Amino acid sequence: MTTMTVIDTTPAVSPQQQKHSPTRRLFTVEEYCAMAELGILEEGERVELLDGEIVVMPPIGEPHEDGATRLGRDMTHLLYDRAWVRVQNSVRLDDYGLPELDIAVVRLRDDYHRRRPTPEDVILIIEVADTSLEFDREVKLARYAAAGIPEVWIVNLRARQVEAHSDPVDGTYRSRRVVTADGSIGPLAFPDVSLAVADFLLE
């Protein structure tokens, strides 16, 4: 049997050539918002900005809409005059991050009409997840931890449970608790507040 030796004759890439290798063009929050204002991003288009990249989000189904609506209603009632509950709005994580999220519980301020909430304002973020479950767990959760968001709930519509994450350190959450549909959950910042999971995770 004859063994054939293949010699790679591709020349090595010089440092000068490496400088001209393809790179990604990242967008700042200001550039992203300008694209929306100019109509480059269509009104109502389900997109968000993460790490400078524009991410297209999947459509929201009926269980997602209903769960987020019920949660927003109940949170608003329970936290009246103690925090703002923002539904289907964004939080500015940094200069390159403007995720769209289902619910953000933020500190009371009168100037959110001038500037969006930042991590320092956020008490709790809630993501209702079905088709976006893996993305919320593997991508967005890490961004929230890196930004220092103190608590995040992922409402898992598939398993009918809430996955609550807290204590962010070095881009990860050190604490995770799972509350099933027959349990109750409340924000860590408001220990006197409790919501029955079954009230917003209907069968």
Account of the 3D structure:
- By secondary structure, the protein is α+β, with helices and mostly antiparallel strands.
- It folds into two domains: 24-55, no CATH class; 60-199, tt1808, chain A.
- Helix content is 22%, strand content 29%.
- It has four helices and ten strands, in the order ααββαβββαβββββ.
- The chain has helices spanning 15-18, 29-37, 62-78, 133-147; strands at 47-50, 53-56, 84-90, 100-106, 122-129, 151-156, 161-169, 172-180, 184-185, 195-196.
- It has a six-stranded mixed β-sheet with strand order 3-4-5-6-7-8.
- Strand 6 and strand 7 form a beta hairpin.
- The protein is globular.
- The model has no long low-confidence stretch (mean pLDDT 91).
Keywords:
single chain; about 200 residues; alpha+beta; tt1808, chain A; 2 domains; six-stranded mixed sheet; two-stranded antiparallel sheet; about 30% strand
